[in-house]
Amino acid sequence: MRIYTDEIINAVCLHMAERRGVSPSDVEVQLSWEEQYGFTAEVWVNGRNQYLIEANLLEAIEQYLLKQYKIRKFRSQITLDADEEFWADIED
């Protein structure tokens, strides 16, 4: 299974909204990849920004898969990658 940029952003929005007690529409996310830091996301919630590291992104995807697809996967089964866009490969 593979999910792409939009679903990864949705996963982060839903995860951060739940953690902050806000609506998912109050969360903005920008994904990035840098050689020094790997995969990260800058997240804005109610005008405040926060940076998430790859482990946080994997946690958000893990929760998203469980809640949206009823699929139980662990972070070790999720691999992030990027080229023209971002995607996550989920092991079967």
What would you note in describing this structure?
The protein is α+β, with helices and mostly antiparallel strands and 92 residues long. Helices cover 35% and strands 37% of the residues. The protein has helices at residues 5-20, 54-69; strands spanning 2-4, 27-34, 38-45, 48-52, 78-82, 86-90. The protein has a 3-stranded antiparallel sheet with strand order 1-6-5. A 3-stranded antiparallel sheet has the order 2-3-4. Strand 3 and strand 4 (48-52) form a beta hairpin. Helix 1 crosses helix 2. The longest helix has 16 residues, at 5-20. The mean pLDDT is 96. This is YxcD family protein. InterPro entries: Uncharacterised_YxcD. Pfam families: DUF2653.
Task: Produce the secondary structure layout.
Layout: E1 2-4, H1 5-20, E2 27-34, E3 38-45, E4 48-52, H2 54-69, E5 78-82, E6 86-90
Antiparallel strand pairs: 1-6, 2-3, 3-4, 5-6
Helix pairs in contact: 1-2
Strand order of the largest sheet: 1-6-5
Run of helices and strands = EHEEEHEE
Give the beta-strand count: 6
Question: How much β-strand is present in the residues?
Answer: 35-45%
Assembly annotation: single chain
Rg calculated over all Cα atoms: 12 Å
Helical content, roughly? 25-40%
Q: List low-confidence stretches.
A: none
InterPro entries: Uncharacterised_YxcD
Protein name: YxcD family protein
Organism: Paenibacillus solisilvae
Pfam family, one: DUF2653
